[in-house]
Amino acid sequence: MPTHGSMTDSLDIARIEALLDDRFPQIHSGGRIFSIEEIGERNARVRMRHHERMLRPGGTVSGSAMFGLADFSVYVAIIATLGEAGIDAVTTNLNINFLAKPEPRDMIADVRLIRLGRRLAVAEVEMRSEGMSDLVAHAIATYALPTRDRQSQRAC
Amino acid sequence: MPTHGSMTDSLDIARIEALLDDRFPQIHSGGRIFSIEEIGERNARVRMRHHERMLRPGGTVSGSAMFGLADFSVYVAIIATLGEAGIDAVTTNLNINFLAKPEPRDMIADVRLIRLGRRLAVAEVEMRSEGMSDLVAHAIATYALPTRDRQSQRAC
Amino acid sequence: MPTHGSMTDSLDIARIEALLDDRFPQIHSGGRIFSIEEIGERNARVRMRHHERMLRPGGTVSGSAMFGLADFSVYVAIIATLGEAGIDAVTTNLNINFLAKPEPRDMIADVRLIRLGRRLAVAEVEMRSEGMSDLVAHAIATYALPTRDRQSQRAC
Amino acid sequence: MPTHGSMTDSLDIARIEALLDDRFPQIHSGGRIFSIEEIGERNARVRMRHHERMLRPGGTVSGSAMFGLADFSVYVAIIATLGEAGIDAVTTNLNINFLAKPEPRDMIADVRLIRLGRRLAVAEVEMRSEGMSDLVAHAIATYALPTRDRQSQRAC
Question: Residue C121 and residue C106: Cα distance in Å, rounded?
């Protein structure tokens, strides 16, 4: 689903990463584990680097790390689609299904915005262990979008 | 809803913490942020210590940290109810609603198991900033329980 | 949780039922199966009359009927709390867990609004077979609220 | 995603419809509103005929009708994949997002099983007004599968 990483995408990815570094420096406080691989109109692909911090016994990835990957990836897709205005979007709901035991390797999240309204965005996230076709986890997330007709940035 | 911490509960809490330390030492790899405050028949109360690692701009708690609190608290309530057998339970679904901006302080999760079947447990989690009555977040989680008639510990 | 049915509530219940009859006459097209039993600040109790139309083999109630009960009950709680303005609220998400086989009798839904923001309301619904204490089903619903600063009634 | 309706599929569809008619005659008590259009390995497409019974003001389709479509379609995909054994599967969770106002016409549901374990099946459902590309609603459903090693048909 995501478009191939073209020069334009690369610039956009760099700009998004700069925005995020500026606003959420603590995302990387434990090391840079997320990298944006592709973005497109209403979609994104994000990689979560395999990292000891997120481990569970048996070397698999924790649910909490997969939640973080899903949440971050949707946020990236919203900013990729709405531009800088999207940075004030906030998660209101995230429903995650854990489908299979993840492999002890990088995870890839593919996001698709299935609704982009004036006030809410809804996204679907498919998560796979790198190089595998079966889903490891699946999430649906809702973000409240910043209102454009007000200065207020309070969530809805 | 949770019962008061009696002598019996205290012992049980200590035993649960010992079990968890033994099986999931990495939970505390970043410091001991969770503490079990109360357990009872089908319920539990868990505190998440306020900690720089989980912060978002403005000093609030990250969604990922709240996911981790909800997930861990349900796990505690299952072990408190089923005993050591519960340790092989695995999360299959977690649906979380973020309702209000958390305060920059400890968070308290109150868990209630609303279904305890042979194969699945379903739990509700209410999360509040310490000392506040309004909910900050609410979660519903499903765990697959280990089958008793098999040696296999694979998830359902 | 709902308040007792006082004279004031009774009047409010009658007013809500009149509003609903006016706006959604088709709710009762198959016979009057829902009745509002109690309303209060941010909560409501609704009864679903046992009715052949909603049956499944073995005499139990269909999932679709329970979905309808949950959705309607939350709508009632929103109107009870916001007044006539609430009538333009629309469901954006409903997550329902089926916990036990319902008895072949009336079902009672208890609703509690756990968030009432400017743009979104989130509610929890507990459903029981009449006279039973165990939950048959549990739902979390989100409604988009009509914006007050616009004439537009489009969903967010 | 569903395979094209071939002769083999047509036979299978007829067999599934016969099974459902036998076990759930009340599905069609208000007229035959569901028809199975396509089935395949782990997927299905089901049409819900536009019908006055399911209407809301403005001619749109009710949330309850869309819930019923999602639930039924997943059930069809499970039976198509597991065969007659699937008929004892029961819904344990259904999470539905309403994304856009449906048109007053038939609705099409496309189901994909994203997990088929020994004990649980998880499915994704995309719902569209006939002939439209945008999603009207999206659902994730979990079914408990009948245990093969027991006669018991109790849900997990």
Answer: 27
Nearest to B73 by CA among B37, B109, B49, B97: B109
**In A, which residues are within 8 Å of D138 by CB distance?**
114, 122, 124, 140
Three-state SS sequence of C27-51? HHCCCCCEEEEEEECCEEEEEECCC
Per residue, the 3-state secondary structure of chain B, as one string, reads CCCCCCHHHHHHHHHHHHHHHHHCHHHHCCCCCEEEEEEECCEEEEEECCCHHHECHHHCECHHHHHHHHHHHHHHHHHHHHHHHHHHCEEEEEEEEECCCCCCCCEEEEEEEEEECCCEEEEEEEEEECCCCCCCEEEEEEEECCCCCCCCCCCC
CA atoms within 13 A on the CB side of B79: 25
Q: What percent of chain D shows pLDDT beyond 90?
A: 65
Beta carbons within 10 angstroms of residue D74's beta carbon: 29
Contact D48, D106 (CB under 8 A): yes
This prediction's pTM = 0.89
Q: Is the pLDDT of residue A4 over 50?
A: no
Q: Please, which pLDDT band fits residue D41 given cuts at 50, 70 and 90?
A: confident
pLDDT at D44 over 90: yes
pLDDT at A138 over 60: yes
Q: Does D138 touch chain A (CB under 8 A)?
A: yes
Q: Which of A142-156, C10-24, C35-49, D87-101 has the lowest mean pLDDT?
A: A142-156
DSSP letter string over A30-80? T---EEEEEEETTEEEEEE---GGGB-GGGPBPHHHHHHHHHHHHHHHHHH
Between B97, B100, B122, which is nearest C99 by CB?
A: B122
pLDDT tens for each residue of C129-138? 999 999 999 9
Maximum distance among all alpha carbons in chain B?
Answer: 50
Instruction: Tell me, yes or no, if B94 comes closer than 8 A to chain C by beta carbon.
Output: no
Using an 8 Å CB-CB cutoff, list chain D residues near A124.
124, 138
* The pLDDT of residue C1: 42
Mutation to test the D interface, candidates C48, C87, C98, most D Cβ within 10 Å: C98
pLDDT level of residue A51 (50, 70, 90 thresholds): confident
Query: What are the tokens at A89?
Result: 């979007």
Q: Is B100 on the interface with C (CB under 8 A)?
A: yes
Interface test with C, best of B74, B94, B99, B133 (most C CBs within 10 A): B99
